[in-house]
Each structure stands twice: as C-alpha cells, then as structure tokens.
Specification:
The chain is an all-beta fold and about 160 residues long. The protein has one domain: Jelly Rolls (Sandwich), CATH 2.60.120.10. It starts with 14 loop residues before the first strand and ends with a strand. About 5% of the residues lie in helices and about 45% in strands.
Length: about 160
C-alpha cells in the first residue's frame, strides 16, 4: 500500500524511531500517509529523560499528554501537564519537554506543516539550543534537577 492509499495507521504499523530523548512511533508523515500539512508522533519518554531546549523554525507544534506528567517549557515559562492537557508552540519558539517524574511519559507531538516549501526544506529542524545561554542553566536557576539522556549524560 502506498502512502497515498493509506487512510488508517494502526500502532502495529507505526514507524518506530528511537532517539536519545524518546522512543517515537510515527503515525502520520508523508512517507506513511499522504499528509502534507500534519506530522504526528507518539513519543514515549522514560522517567528522568528530556528533550532539551530546541525550536522548529518553520513549524508550529502541539504537545498533548496521553499518560504521565510533562514538565513542558514554552519559552522561559513552564507548566506541569497531565493526561488530557496540551501546550501550543508557535513556529520558531524555543521549547523543551522534561519528565522528572517516577512514571513514564507518553505524549503526542503534532507539527505543521509536514512538507516545507522548497526554499525552507533544507533548514535544520529541530534546532537545538539546550547548551546555549540562557537555556543551559534555566532549569537549575529555578532549582530543578538536570535530566538524564544518552546513556546517563546529564543535561540542564
């Protein structure tokens, strides 16, 4: 079945893509379905892990919590999001997701557009800024512990 023919994606058919932050299960992207405007990934984040501060230059994003609790940052402000809650992140806005809790975190990341105009398609995405000021020390300045990722490396 080609992406243009597919209308349903069951979790068994999701494209699994682990990275240093989460174990991702891609449900919607152009190589799965004929979506040009939406990306959808179910992310599974272990306790103590995070996706450090970064931004998407040309995409807006929604983070929707399914299970667990997320310490969700948008700019220099954060909230603890529980199941059923979400954060909207405009294009170019620095954000981060942390799981400082004892239970796993499962969330959906919904980004748009899926396909960027040709002039922007080569731009890096995401752009990581977690090692730059003020993002590298923002959490510690508020008394929050660093997260663990990539085999136990500590990150602010």
């Amino acid at each position: 079945m080609t992406p243009s023919d597919r209308r349903f994606v069951q979790i068994a058919d999701a494209l699994r893509e682990p990275n240093v932050w989460t174990n991702n299960e891609w449900l919607c992207r152009p190589d799965i379905v004929a979506a040009r405007d939406l990306l959808l990934v179910r992310a599974n984040m272990a306790p103590g892990y995070c996706h450090p501060f970064h931004y998407h230059p040309h995409r807006e994003e929604i983070i929707y919590v399914i299970y667990g609790r997320a310490e969700q940052w948008v700019g220099d402000d954060y909230r603890i999001l529980s199941a059923g809650e979400m954060a909207h992140i405009p294009p170019g806005t620095i954000h981060a997701t942390f799981n400082p809790h004892a239970e796993p975190l499962v969330f959906l990341a919904i980004l748009s557009p899926a396909v960027l105009p040709e002039a922007k398609a080569g731009d890096p995405d995401p752009v990581d800024v977690g090692t730059q000021a003020p993002w590298a020390s923002l959490r510690q300045a508020r008394g929050l512990a660093p997260c663990v990722w990539d085999g136990g490396k500590q990150v602010a």
